Every structure is written in C-alpha cells, then in structure tokens.
Amino acid sequence: MKFDMGSTTLSELGKSTVGSSDDLGTLIKWLIQAAEPLEGKFNGAGKAAFDTFKLNADEITAALNGSLSAILGGQSGMDTAFGTGDVELEDNAHQNMGSANFDAARFGAR
C-alpha cells in the first residue's frame, strides 16, 4: 500500500471545508423558503415534522456547522502533524548522514 499526499493537500482541504460551512447554512435556509408554499398543503405527521424542522432550523444549522468546525479542527491538526513529521524526517536524515561513513561503503576504494 502506498500513501502519497502533497504538502498542501490538508491545507487546501481546510479551505474547502470553511466554505462548505457557510454554504450549508445558506442551503438549509433555502430549503425552508422553498418548502413554505407547501406549508398549508399537508397534515399529520408530515406537517409536524416540517414544523419541527422549521422551528429548529437555526439549531440544526448550528449543530451541523459545529460538526464541520470540528472536522476543520481535525484537518488543521493533521496538517500540523504531517508538517512537523516532514521536518523531523528531514532533520533525522541529515543527522544520520552526518555520522555515516560513506567512504567505507565504497567497494574497491583504497
């Protein structure tokens, strides 16, 4: 299995997630507005579910945005961890190269 990711992948993903949070709130409001002409057209459990959704739209939006915010925090943490790991890998490689005897590895060298 090969795992290959560019150094900017997670930061670019984070930028997309920030925009998605704003879009999600707008889409929920549009859904409510689009369904308003149907408000008087149905009864029973469907009406109750729609009324509950409409009353709790702000809470639903906040909960979904909170979840997206947590995802964004996770992406940021992963980005930091990958960046730190990359720097540490380079530092360790340079340190080990400094103590290596490359001349001893040359076969036939005198």
User: What is the total domain count?
Assistant: 1
Radius of gyration: 27 Å
Spell the H/E element sequence. Answer: HHH
Q: What form results from the Cα inertia axes?
A: rod-shaped
Number of strands: 0
Rounded mean pLDDT score: 80
Largest sheet features = none
Structural topology:
Blueprint: H1 9-35, H2 45-55, H3 57-99
Description:
The model has no long low-confidence stretch (mean pLDDT 80). Helix 1 packs antiparallel against helix 3 (57-99). The chain is rod-shaped and about 90 Å long. The two termini are 42 Å apart. It is mainly α. The protein has helices at 9-35, 45-55, 57-99. It has one domain (20-96).
In brief:
This protein is mainly α. The protein has helices at residues 9-35, 45-55, 57-99.
